[in-house]
């Protein structure tokens, strides 16, 4: 059918080579490049990318990011992630979008540092959250949930940042995500008979409930009900779901 499926794949995942190739095709919406499995070709493209970076204009950098993204793999993700410090906002956005599409866990530490720097830029913050959600690495769970109730919780800016964080958590299929979301539900006034925060069932409550439904397929009104159900189902839940 014209699709190139690499037969030699280095990975720590328990999937076989063909399954990984198919996953790559599904993630990127197109078959992998035929030369992507050749380390020498990939290394040459990376060298070309690095050597041209400083002399390229903004639009050339963005195109180069897209071209290198097509090669794929953790080495490419690392090379791109190091460009998250570029002075151009448009270039940084292109890097984040590429990293989300690549879904390589090697990029997570770089994206988490970018998340900390992006709090005053809601649009970029949202892109970083989305990329972390696409990658789905549990290492991102606590940083995404950390201090989510700090700031003016009635402001549109706070609401946008909170929604971006929770949307990302809803895409990370890991027990840690459900743990944190149940805690957030209680803090948002959804604790029920054990509620202590008094913050009321505002937008955060609705966002968290939607995220929990997406991750688990379940629906409960209060945090204590979620906690009881999750305690009984946590072990191996996402392995069974897959």
Give the secondary structure arrangement, pairings included.
Elements: H1 17-28, H2 39-53, H3 58-69, H4 74-81, H5 89-102, H6 108-117, H7 122-135, H8 141-145, H9 156-169, H10 175-190, H11 203-216, H12 223-233, H13 237-241
Helix pairs in contact: 2-3, 3-5, 5-7, 6-7, 7-9, 9-11, 10-11, 10-12
Structural overview:
With 242 residues, this protein is mainly α. The protein folds into 2 domains: 10-123, no CATH class; 136-242, no CATH class. The chain contains 13 helices and no strands. The protein is flat.
Structural class: mainly alpha
- Helix content estimate: 55-70%
Q: Give the averaged pLDDT, no decimals.
A: 83
The beta-strand count equals 0
Proportion in β-strands? under 5%
Q: What series of H and E elements makes up the topology?
A: HHHHHHHHHHHHH
Given as residue ranges, the uncertain stretches (5+ residues, pLDDT < 50) are 1-37, 194-199
């Amino acid at each position: 059918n014209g699709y190139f499926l690499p037969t030699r794949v280095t990975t720590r995942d328990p999937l076989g080579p063909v399954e990984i190739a198919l996953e790559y095709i599904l993630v990127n919406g197109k078959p992998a490049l035929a030369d992507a499995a050749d380390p020498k070709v990939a290394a040459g493209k990376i060298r070309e990318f690095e050597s041209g970076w400083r002399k390229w204009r903004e639009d050339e950098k963005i195109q180069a990011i897209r071209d290198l993204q097509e090669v794929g793999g953790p080495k490419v993700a690392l090379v791109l992630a190091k460009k998250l410090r570029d002075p151009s906002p448009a270039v940084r956005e292109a890097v984040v979008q590429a990293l989300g599409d690549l879904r390589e866990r090697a990029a997570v530490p770089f994206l988490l540092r970018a998340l900390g720097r992006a709090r005053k830029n809601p649009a970029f913050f949202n892109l970083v959250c989305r990329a972390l959600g696409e990658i789905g690495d549990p290492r991102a769970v606590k940083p995404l949930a950390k201090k989510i109730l700090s700031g003016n919780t009635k402001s549109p800016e706070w609401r946008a940042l909170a929604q971006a964080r929770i949307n990302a958590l809803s895409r990370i299929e890991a027990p840690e995500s459900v743990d944190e979301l149940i805690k957030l539900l209680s803090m948002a006034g959804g604790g029920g008979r054990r509620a202590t925060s008094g913050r009321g069932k505002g937008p955060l409550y609705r966002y968290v409930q939607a995220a929990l439904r997406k991750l688990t397929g379940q629906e409960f009104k209060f945090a204590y009900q979620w906690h009881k159900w999750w305690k009984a189902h946590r072990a191996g839940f996402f392995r069974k779901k897959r």
